[in-house]
Design brief:
mainly beta; Ubiquitin-like (UB roll); globular; rRNA processing; WD40/YVTN_repeat-like_dom_sf
Length: about 425
């Protein structure tokens, strides 16, 4: 294998459409060939009018060095016929726009198809379009916001928004995209310390809030006026709409207790199951109906961020270390499945791609955003998105990455498909 003239018999296969398929007859290629050379081989066999880049998988793992190096690491015999599955390579995301905020951007939610929601340390929430234009900003509280979220299932004109922050209160708003205005509908009180994270269930019925008081509280978002107290003092949004019929409730549907430190992250798996992560170095999976923890997983360092993948298959975690950890709650052993190490400082945010279960983005205090394919422990791309530490990141409209941080910028990158 160390001979420069050594060759490896390779069979090229793909799940792409018929026009991208080549012969499955084994072909001898140099053992020191890299994925770029392999891509040239496939393009030559396809005789495409316009060449396209490919990546290559062996037994479900991406090749990131030479074929020889990969085979040595997996103890694959040089006499073997290696099956190489080729897939479209992900081109480097391009920077398309940047929005200017008045303070550090601490939270972002890009799940709405047309708008990006952010929260900032000046206590204001802002809604942006994909071009980086702020269409509305509205003051939420005097202290910093820590988390924001769209409410799924609202109308095409009026959209639900929830916010939370250092004042220990969560708030439900209605954003009118025709009028570019927001009005306050309800406030949720009960936590005794700062709220660090909020998450809304996929059906839009329940909201979870996580706090420095070590608890998670679950709230109904279809607020029943008979269970609430009208708010006496009305505010006015920058959009100009008055907050009529604002209600305040302190009656949580459930209080989830068990963490011993700040609960820093929340993510719903389904309407019945929610995950929480904490500075106490644990992740808990809860039965929301019974308000009981059904699974607990521990890591070596405090957890700052979390994202639960499709069907709850993998949980991505980041925090007071330079790695992203992946945990599979379906396994009986509570051990890390994979550790992705590339950042050089704290990992501040992680988010699974909603359209590709292999893709994950992470943000860090090292000023970077990284795009991962979890079939490799080397990031696909590193985005120099910010001039200061990155505090939040999310996907938007399938192929955009929105991030914010201490440079007061909303940075938007686009993936090319």
């Amino acid at each position: 294998m160390s001979n420069e003239d050594a060759q490896v018999l390779s069979r090229f296969v793909t799940r792409m459409p018929e026009e991208y398929r080549v012969t499955d007859t084994p072909i001898a290629v140099p053992s020191r060939i890299t994925r770029y050379g392999l891509s040239e081989v496939v393009n030559h066999l396809l005789a495409l009018e316009k060449p396209r880049p490919f990546d290559f998988l062996v037994d479900g793992e991406l090749i990131r060095g030479s074929l020889e190096k990969f085979m040595l690491s997996k103890n694959v015999s040089a006499e073997s016929v290696v099956t190489l599955e080729y897939i479209p390579a992900v081109a480097p995301p391009t920077h398309v726009s940047a929005g200017e905020s008045k303070d550090w951007l601490s939270a972002v939610d890009g799940s709405h198809p047309n708008f990006i929601l952010t929260g900032a340390c000046d206590g204001c929430a802002r809604i942006w379009n994909t071009q980086g234009d702020c269409v509305v900003d509205f003051p939420v509280q005097p202290e910093a916001l820590t988390s924001v979220s769209w409410v799924p299932g609202t109308s095409t004109q009026k959209h639900g928004v929830v916010t939370a922050g250092k004042d220990s209160t969560a708030k439900l708003w209605e954003f009118d995209s025709d009028q570019n205005s927001c009005k306050l509908l309800a406030s949720f009180t009960g936590h005794t310390d700062s709220i660090e994270a909020i998450a809304v269930a996929g059906d839009g019925e329940l909201m979870g809030t996580a706090s420095w008081d070590s608890t998670v509280r679950l709230w109904k978002l279809n607020v029943d006026d008979s269970e609430t107290v009208p708010t006496e003092k009305k505010q006015r949004t920058t959009g100009g709409a008055s907050d009529a019929n604002v209600t305040t409730t302190s009656s949580a549907e459930a209080i989830l207790e068990g963490h011993t430190g700040c609960v820093s992250a929340l993510s719903w798996h389904s309407a019945e199951e929610i995950f929480s992560a904490s500075w106490d170095r644990s992740v808990r999976k809860w039965d929301a109906n019974k308000a009981t923890a059904v699974q607990v997983f521990s890591v070596p360092k405090a957890i700052h961020c979390m994202s639960v993948g499709a069907q709850g298959a993998l949980v991505a975690l980041g925090g007071a270390e330079r790695s992203v950890r992946l945990w599979d709650p379906r396994l009986s052993a509570s051990t890390t499945t994979t550790t992705l190490t590339s950042h050089t400082a704290w990992v501040s945010a992680v988010e699974w791609c909603p359209s590709n279960s292999y893709h994950l983005v992470s943000a860090s205090f090292d000023n970077s955003v990284k795009l991962w394919d979890i079939r490799s422990q080397v990031p696909l791309h590193t985005l120099a998105a910010h001039a200061d530490k990155v505090l939040c990141v999310d996907w938007h409209a399938g192929n955009f990455i929105a991030s914010g941080g201490a440079d007061c910028k909303l940075s938007i990158h686009k993936l090319q498909h």
